[in-house]
Amino acid sequence: MLLKEYRICMPLTVEEYRIGQLYMISKHSHEQSDQGEGVEVVQNEPYDDPEHGQGQFTEKRVYLNSKLPSWARAVVPKIFYVTEKAWNYYPFTVTEYTCSFLPKFSIHIETKYEDNKGSNDKIFDSELKEQEREVCFVDIAYDEIPDRYYKESEDLRYFKSEKTSRGMLQEGWRDSQNPIMCSYKLVTVKFEVWGLQTRVEQFIHKVIRDVLLLGHRQAFAWVDEWIDMTMDEVREFERTIQEATNQKIGMFPPSISISETARSTCALTGPASAPSTPMCTDAPESLLVPKDRPRKKSAPETLTLPDPTQSGVPQGSDPSLEPVPNHLRSATPLSSSSDPAEEDEQ
Fold it and tell me: What SS3 class is residue 231?
């Protein structure tokens, strides 16, 4: 398990970002969806929690096989997707990511929003308890972003909002910006597979940081598009974009229909909103050794020696002192390990 706390400051208020977050997530998901890969919205509805009150529950399927590194694509099927479940009780949210193909993989994110510059060191104290974590500040203007995500119009060093007059963020902007808010994200990544755990968990955190950086950059770069929206208007925008995104993904369906995939006999029982793909820890059938495969032997079951009387060796004499006839040399095994290939099969 690898635990990190990300702090991402924004030149907005917490109340403003409530609209901007919903707008950004919908538009970003639509932009990133193409040719059968992207974000499919499965469920999006109000949700009441006895502790946190009224909120919104969403379930999505994130198809991203081509975005994986080559060493991961080698072992991941092309119908691979990650299930995202989110409970939004703004200004507190919980998001979970799981994958039925990788039962020992999960991401858990708790997010809290406050109107400050990331100075609250005790915001997650009740959740952390004794767990150690690394605190990572993400600068939406000056942190390096992967080249494939860079857009000049979203470069916050040069962008200025026409409606709010905020922008052109300079070095050290977090100390002078007003208003300012911070997204605190406590991210727990688990990939409990021996030999791969450290490498995969570090890779996932790098991806998460890139996604957080890009998403928050876009939320502010698009501020003039959403700043005048009400909650009802952004919810309507969200529904419209979700339908378009689902249709966009549906134009290029996977070669195997997920809904028609037979459930494994060891599939786990889950809620109605859980993914329908089999959840099983057994190895794929293609990797199992056939049970009826005959085991190779490095020596015959029995060894029949020639009759001394027929081979010309006098009875009572030691046959090991006599030369072995030519016609028997190739048929007599000298060692149980004479064939290296057969020895490997033992």
Answer: helix
